[in-house]
Amino acid sequence: MSDKLALSQERTKLFEDIIDGVIPKRVPVSHNLPIEFAIQYAGKDLAEAQWDTSLLPEIFEKVCADFYSDTLPVLAFRFPSFYKILGARNFVMSSSGFLQHPEVEGLALEDYDAFIESPFDCIVEKVLPRLYSELDKDPVGKAMTLAKAFTAFNDDMGAAAMLYDKLIEKYGYARVNLFGGMCEAPFDFVADQLRGFKNISIDVRRVPDKVEAAVEAVTPWMIKMGMQPNPTKTSATFIPLHMAPYLRDKDFERFYWPTFKKTVDGLAEAGIKSFLFVEHDWMRYVDYLAELPENTIMMFEYGDPKLVKEKLGKKHIITGFYPISLLKTGTEQECIDKAKELIDILAPGGRYFFGFDKSPITVDSVNTRNLQAVLEYVATNANY
User: Fold this and answer.
1) Which BP terms from GO are recorded (predicted)?
2) How would you classify the pairing of strands 74-75 and 99-100?
3) What percent of the chain lies above the pLDDT cut of 90?
4) What are phi and psi of 357, to 5 degrees?
């Protein structure tokens, strides 16, 4: 057995132990440095490198070599090629080279009834042509656009996937895939891509029955979207949670929680764990999160780690909380001390792996030496 294969198996066992409720040998480290950060760190042009996947091996190699992680630390989540072909209005490349998600309205207020009756038909016939200008064509034009976009998608994502496998093998990373699938909480889906933040905030007061019916109607599609062809013990479906902290408690209880829980439960019934990015501050809803299926992975952005450990730490897997902002403003020792503090709170009893509260998008949003120091400290000092 090669040294790298043995290392990969050892690292994978750390995560298997966490899932099995066994205290692992040490606290594993898992973080994600997105493609924009990686390109800047490697000194490449941000706009050019996102269009040319042949540049990615050199870029990702440098990140893997310089930043410790027990899992693959790089991820190309989106490429601009297929969005450009589609004429996307919901994901637009800015002049600075960042793919941005502007406020969009794909579903008009008067379309609620059609969406409730058949979400799929409504999305195909009404929403997609509004969000993607190149799909607002005759059937032949639509078909050609979709063919080109899917080809670009498969080419770019396929090239990235092959590179990931090579890097996992070369660096002995754990065979863990926390992004084995992706979906959204039904309310977030209606808000993000269909109505927009402003409109949905008005809708819950103006047409609450329609909002409730819409999120119910789309729930089976979110479960289907989050399915994985071959789920494993160490794979998960990623679900970013957006709107809940901006809702009143009574609106959360009515519009958000029931269908979100139904989605996570539906995935669990199929043997699929959910990896939740618990965005913003969910401390009002910690008791709700405790009701989710065992071994739901939760990455917290803000909140009280002691409360989360107390309420969730025996049933669920916790990560996050480490403030990326400190890596920019703190001294190296202050950054290491924060890691010690969080490990002391979250590591006892297991069911925890070290991670940050969010991913750094720009290379200048952190002091990269502080980032390296924290990762190296946890890797060598967080033994049980």
Assistant:
1) porphyrin-containing compound biosynthetic process
2) unpaired
3) 91
4) -75, -20
Using a 10 angstrom Cβ sphere, with 0-12 exposed, 13-18 middle and 19 or more buried, the burial of residue 72 is buried
Instruction: Write the CB contacts of 52 (distance below 8 Å, at least 6 apart in sequence).
Output: none
- Please tell me the distance from the alpha carbon of residue 138 to that of residue 302, in angstroms, as a whole number: 47
For 119, the token pair is 């979400």
Q: Does residue 351 sit in helix, strand or coil?
A: coil
Q: 302-322, pLDDT tens digit by residue? A: 999 999 999 999 999 999 999
**Tell me, what DSSP letter sits at residue 151?**
H
DSSP 3-state of 181: strand
User: Residue 269 burial by CB count (10 A; 0-12/13-18/19+): exposed, middle or buried?
Assistant: exposed
Is the pTM here over 0.90, yes or no?
Answer: yes
Residue with tokens 């969000």: 131
CB contact at 8 A, 265 and 219: no
Q: Are 112 and 210 a contacting pair, CB within 8 Å? A: yes
Residues of the chain with pLDDT under 50: none
Q: Tokens for 321? A: 């909380």
d(Cα 26, Cα 32) in Å, to the nearest integer?
A: 20
**Contact between residue 263 and residue 186 where contact means Cβ atoms under 8 Å apart:** yes
pLDDT of the residue at 361: 86
Q: Which two tokens stand for residue 270?
A: 């199929």
Cα–Cα distance list, 300 to 96, 118, 281 (Å): 29, 34, 8
Could you tell me if 333 and 374 are in contact, meaning their C-beta atoms sit under 8 angstroms apart?
no
The CA distance from 36 to 76, in Å, is 9
Residue 24: left (phi > 0), alpha (psi -120 to 50), or beta? beta
Residue in the structure block whose two tokens are 């205290």: 23
45-62 per-position pLDDT tens digit = 988 899 899 999 999 999
Q: In the chain, how long is the greatest CA-to-CA distance?
A: 64
Q: Residue 13: CB partners within 8 Å, gap ≥ 6?
A: 24, 25
